Amino acid sequence: MDLIGDRLSGAAMAALADGMGVLAAVPGSGGVLEDFEWLTANRAAERLFGHPLAGRRLRADDLQDGEGAGLFACLAECVAEKQAVRRLVIAPGGARWRIAAAPFDAGIAAPTVCVTLVELGPEIPAVPESDRAHRAKAEFLAHMSHELRTPLNAVLGFSEVLLAETFGPLGSPRYRSYAADIHASGTHLLSLIDGILDLSQSETARTEMQEEAINVADAARQVLAQVGDRAAARGVDIGEDLSGDLPLLYGDARALQRMLTNLLSNAVKFTPSGGQVMLSASPMPDGGIGLMVADTGAGIAEDEMARVMEPFGSAGMTAPRGANGAGIGLPVVKRLMEMHGGRLDLYSEPGAGTTAILMFPARRSLPHAAPHGITHSGARA
User: Fold this and answer.
1) Is the pTM here over 0.70, yes or no?
2) Angstrom distance (rounded) from CA 62 to CA 41
3) In angstroms, rounded to a whole number, what is the distance separating the alpha carbons of residues 333 and 259?
4) CA-based, 20 to 30 A from 223: which of 104, 133, 242, 368?
């Protein structure tokens, strides 16, 4: 065996493989190849198999569980063809091995093979080209959204300074009108950028929820106050029906505010003057929390419901003047609800208005009387 060890040392240095060994073919009755016997193996090879190898048999009859089956086939082909064989096989435990087997003169009568084994780890599924393109688009939108916010905030800030006439009168009344238009347009653009940022982050799994116990009624009233001026300017009556026995919601406060803002803004935007918008919230029969935004606006045709739930999709119905949007709001709400384990349901009929319902699962409901420091499922913050 010293001769084998010496020759194997030279082969190992040349091959630079992780695992290495020499096996001898063992013929059965009639000279048919029955199995192989490990003559020697280095420690790396033994680590791959999980036990010492020298003197062990690699038996064809014992390979029903798949252990070593690819290795045996590679060795058998090497002996039969009398030439080197390389293969990629699935090894025990699901890992992948790259196998290289070559005829080897071990100084014995039986055919022998020098084998090298390299562990590649489990196979990584290929990412479809369409998925890579989609991810690249989402990354680009997220980056551009961040870059656009800085100059846009400056535009809004300076327009507010002009409207307040901080450094003196503007002179012509037209200047004040222009400043108001700049501020209104900038605010609208900032809202679109925020929506694109939310959408791109959710698509690339970059959003990390900051979960906490949220008073749903308080959060809803804050959003109503923000949207109220817009509704009044359009002549839309906006109201609330918030149940007094709502549990706390364990979720992301910013995401909840974003969802309610999107739904209420859409409702106000697509409701003509004299119409109504109502925000309701109540406990669900299963212990979850349900929020509903209903309006008496233009409504959506049944065959267009799926389109408005897709990014940048919009319905083709006739909408009030100035009610066109980029088709971001509902997809953002849908993604944020999915992140909370809930769902968004949409019901609508042309000319009869639209109702959007947010349903949070019961596991996100918390009692108001939770002990101090307890946030969710007994876990301390």
Assistant:
1) no
2) 20
3) 5
4) 368
Rounded (10°) CA dihedral 322, 323, 324, 327:
150
Count of Cβ atoms closer than 10 Å to residue 179 Cβ: 19
The identity of residue 206, as a single letter, is R
Name every residue whose Cβ is closer than 8 Å to that of residue 189 and which is 6 or more positions away in sequence: 152
Q: State in Å, rounded, how far the first CA of the chain is from the last one.
A: 64
Q: Cα separation of 159 and 157, whole Å?
A: 5
Per-residue pLDDT of the chain (381 residues; tens, 9 = 90+): 455 555 545 444 434 456 888 899 988 777 778 789 988 888 888 888 888 888 898 876 544 444 456 788 888 889 888 898 888 877 666 677 888 889 988 788 889 998 888 887 665 565 566 666 666 766 776 667 667 777 888 888 888 888 888 888 888 888 888 988 898 888 878 777 776 666 666 555 445 678 999 999 999 999 999 898 889 988 999 999 998 889 999 999 988 998 999 899 889 988 999 999 999 999 998 899 999 999 998 888 877 777 777 765 554 544 544 444 545 678 888 888 988 999 999 888 888 889 999 999 999 999 876 444 444 444 333
Identify which of 183, 195, 185, 241 has the alpha carbon closest to the alpha carbon of residue 216: 241
* Structure-block tokens of residue 358: 């947010």
DSSP 159-204: HHHHHHTTTS--SSHHHHHHHHHHHHHHHHHHHHHHHHHHHHHHHT
User: Which H or E element spans position 97?
Assistant: strand 96-103
Cβ distance 113 to 75 under 8 Å?
yes
Cα four-point dihedral sign 205, 208, 214, 218: negative
Nearest CA to 376 out of 249, 281, 197, 205 is that of 249
Sign of the dihedral through C-alpha 67, 78, 101, 53: positive
